[in-house]
Amino acid sequence: MVKEIERAGIPVVHMCTVVPISLTVGANRIVPTIAIPHPLGNPALTMEEEKAIRRSLVERALKALETEVTEQTVFEK
Amino acid sequence: MIITNNDWVYEKYKNYDSHQVIFIEGSYKDVLVKTRDKIHEGYELLTHPLSSSLKPNETPFKSIIISEIKDKLNVDSLIIIENSIMSWEKFNNNKLKLNFTQQIIEDFKLVDLTVLEGALNNK
Amino acid sequence: MKLELGYIYIKDIQFAEESKVENGTLYVNKEKVKELVLEDEHFKSVEVDLAKPGESTRIMPVKDVIEPRVKVEGPGGIFPGMVSKVETVGSGKTHVLKGAAVVTTGKIVAFQEGIIDMTGPGSEYTPFSKLNNLVLICEPVDGLKQHDHERALRFAGYKVAVYLGELARTLVPDQVEVFETPTVKEGLKLYPELPRVAYVLMLQSQGLMHDTYVYGVDAKQTLTTMLYPTEIMDGAIVSGNCVSACDKNTTYHHINNPVVHDLFSEHGKTINFVGVIITNENVYLADKERSSNWSAKLAEFLGLDGVIISQEGFGNPDTDLIMNCKKIEAKGIKTVIITDEYAGRDGSSQSLADADASANAVVTGGNANQVINLPALEKVIGYTSVADIIAGGFSGSLHEDGSITAELQVITGATNEMGFNKLSAR
Amino acid sequence: MIKVVQYINQFFANVGGEEMAHIPAEVRTEVVGPGLAFQQAFKGEAEIVATIVCGDSYFNENLEEAKKTILGMVKEYNPDLFIAGPAFNAGRYGVACGTIAAAVKEELNIPVLTGMYKENPGADMFKNKVYIVSTKNSAVGMKDAVKKMAPLALKLAKGEQILSSAEEGYMPNGIRVNFFEKERGSRRAVNMLLAKLAGKEFETEFPMPDFDRVAPNPAVKDITKAKIALVTSGGIVPKGNPDHIESSSASKYGKYDIEGVTDLTEATYETAHGGYDPVYANQDSDRVLPVDVLRDLEKEGKIGSLHRYFYTTVGNGTAVKSSKAFAAEFSKELLADGVDAVILTST
Asked: Of the candidates D124, D140, D168, which is a domain's last residue?
């Protein structure tokens, strides 16, 4: 799916838990997330803490979109 | 940990200290789904969830071994379980009518049990 | 290691007072064969029947097919570790009753498949319709456990095949073929320019009815290892696998391994055929990892340029196949894999349970889900009740007139993954 | 006699090259261009009753109208078979052939056949929808193309069984069909290995699922001006799953308006995905689709805007096949809606 969006000419960042699968399906900008049933959350935390984490991950995704890449790149930080 | 819908396996291993046994009152698919959720929690798959040569729409029974303890998500386990569920769905799209005699049911339980025993004895 | 195979061509099979081979006809003393089988106390009775090419005959459920051979010169005997001593075989001379086979049938478990039609559309899909078959229908004693039944039936087949093979001992072969594998050192000297090629033979090894034996050892307890190709021709590998009729490797397939033969035909010309790496297909994922690691390691160690990998069965062995392929390719060694497909009855589903981009050279034995109509035949050898069970659920249906609509997977050897057949799919 | 209608472009109708690519569709009742060769190859079994000629630019720039007009023209002749092209390596012509052939098949229920070079973009787009014969890359291969297309065309028109792609010469269309090769599998494996070792071309009998790569697009210049769209394979849908998206192997994707939505709550959204434990996503769907955070960022001017619609599928990480087609479709919409970048979330 990520490949088709990229193929259409739209820059895309893939936020996903399982980076190796993301690499296999051909994502170029990858942001690793928390866990499969809740990639952008963590039920162990309070709602505020959770949202803060979510925000930092989304900001990392935006940064990835602003970054020129030439090959598959994982944005760990 | 053994996840199974085969009561023969459950009866045989339920009192072993070395293995926890989760009995699923349900189908092969239910065993796969339970295994998948466990893998998502961080358990590692130890035996392959697909039978060999017995197609998923033939045998109604399945026992799968996963790790006793959880760690971080095991990607190989995840890929294998997802492929296995897809494969199960593919075969069940073919929708064959099944009318098992007691003998066939017992033979399927036996084969599942012996494959599992073979795997455990080989450890 | 050098082996001379002497073929005695069998064009007919008949019952007679005396077992012998004369003018291409295999004469069999039925009583002698029965006696041999009944030596095993696990059987209470046995029927022996014949099935020849073109006859209106259906055999089912087939457990194994075995070619009669005899060791004429050189160490050991046929089926070492099983019915002969554990001597390393594969050298000297072996005689073959080409065109004949022993077929064992039996209802070890209630859901067994395996049909050989000697005529009609089904016969085009199985290589065994072209053979003169001696069929054993063995009745176990009451209450015999499936494990013991399987083993007894397996040995009945070997014993009868060896008995028939013995008839060829003093005959003059119609044709002789020589197969020779040099040592690693000699091979490098003889063929310095030729690419070094080996064959990675995957063996089914999962448990009851899904087993293979190498010199008598259950393959699931083996580590990946090497054989000279000619060892296989003397029966070093035998089948204890009775499920999945279409893509199991019978003992006949092993002993006549087509990849071994076709690699030999190029040996010394376009390639240097170094040997056979045998590796198992176990249930434990750690075993799969270890075995495929070892295949790749041996391939590297042998300094190979290319390998052909053949599979047995479907389902979790797809994972072994892809692991072998991926790991060997990662060593810079080129691979071709042989498999078959389960693409659904309409051919539109994903064929394999695993995949990898490095598997870019695939030979397929066809789609085992394709539906075929098998007309009623005049005679059924074996257990007719099995037709009801095949019909009852798994793969097809039995019609009132005795005809069967079924998926190709019920036919013995139909989509063989050693590449025994011409069937393919696109 | 089998009645055939053929579709060709301005070039093959001898109207002209690129300078005439603007001409709208017209019908000729005489046999034109490649039709002559086809007519001959049909050996009296079939007859081309009409040829539709259309400029490549016209077709592609006036897609809906052109399709409608041409379908009308075809219908009028009520043929037993529709042939488009062959288009060889002409990209727009190939896409036109595929488009119109697929439309005739679907809407008029008439058997269709087209032909083109394997790298023609129309091939990938339509080979799973209509039979496309693989041709050479230029019109020099016309004779060869006709030789392959004519017999298959007749079979299609007569409703005969179509054999495997390898036997009939059409491009593999994802439907696996058995057939007997000339050599046994082991020999084919040896031949394939010899070719692979020698670095020669070889053809796998079973192509692995798509592992191709797409080069990354340039970065977004100014994210504070960019319109960002959210897409998820995590199956987030409005509560109650109004479109009844299936939990796995879904036959459709969802497109949902989030105008004015600032937070996904337990009462308003949930997951339709059957591939993971849904408890957490059902409690708070922002855990899969971060609408709340993006609204904040939008308000703060950290992004230009959040696109009005989000798209959702239930794809597993590894199930690429069906989601591929969905994504190809909605990506066109995203592009048309002026979306600058996509955040795709997966579980």
From this structure: D168
pLDDT digits (tens, 9 = 90+) for D126-183: 998 999 999 999 999 999 999 999 999 999 999 999 999 989 999 998 889 999 999 9
pLDDT tens profile C61-93: 899 999 999 999 999 999 999 999 999 999 999
Q: Which residues contact C93 (CB under 8 A, 6 or more apart)?
A: C3, C4, C5, C6, C71, C72, C73, C74
Q: What is the number of structural domains in chain D?
A: 2
- Number of domains into which chain A is organized: 1
Q: How many domains does chain B have?
A: 1
At D97 the pLDDT is 96
Residue spans of chain C under pLDDT 50 = 391-395
Among D residues 283-302, those touching chain A with beta carbons less than 8 Å apart: 283-284, 286-290, 292-294, 296-297, 302
- Whether the CB of D161 is below 8 Å from some CB of chain C: the reply is no
* Nearest-Cα residue of chain B relative to residue A38: B40
Per the listing, tokens 């809906």 go with D64
Separation CA B115–CA B121 (nearest Å): 10
- C-alpha C91/C-alpha C80 separation (Å) is 13
| pLDDT, position C351 | 83
Q: Closest to C422 (Cβ–Cβ): which among D166, D174, D183? A: D183
- Label residues D167-181 b or e (16+ Cβ within 10 Å = b): ebbbbbbebbbbbeb
* One domain for residues D230 and D157: no
List the CATH number of the domain containing D94: 3.40.50.2300
Q: Which domain holds residue D246?
A: 223-345
Among residues A42, A46, A16, the alpha carbon closest in space to that of A29 is found at A16
- Domain limits for position B105: 2-121
Let me know whether D142 and D241 are in one domain.
no
Position D318 scores a pLDDT of 40
What pLDDT score does C392 carry? 36
Cβ-in-10-Å burial (0-12, 13-18, 19+) of D73 comes to middle
Whether residues D267 and D330 share a domain: the answer is: yes
Q: Do B51 and C316 touch (CB under 8 A)?
A: yes
Q: Are residues D164 and D227 in the same domain?
A: no
Note if C246 is an active site residue.
no
Q: Which residue of B has its CA nearest to C245?
A: B53
Compute the distance between CA of residue A29 and CA of residue A64 in angstroms, rounded to an integer.
Answer: 6
Q: How confident is the model at residue A5 (pLDDT cuts 50, 70, 90)?
A: very high
In terms of Cα–Cα distance, which of C160, C57, C11 is closest to C384? C57
Check whether residue D27 and residue D130 sit in a common domain: yes
Q: Mark yes or no for CB contact B82/D319 under 8 Å.
A: yes
Q: Which residue of D has its CA nearest to B35?
A: D276
Phi-psi region of C273 (alpha: psi -120 to 50; beta: other; left: phi over 0): beta
Asked whether D286 and D234 are in contact (CB, 8 A), the reply is no
The boundaries of the domain holding residue A56 are 2-74
**Cα B50 to Cα B58: distance, rounded to the nearest angstrom:** 12
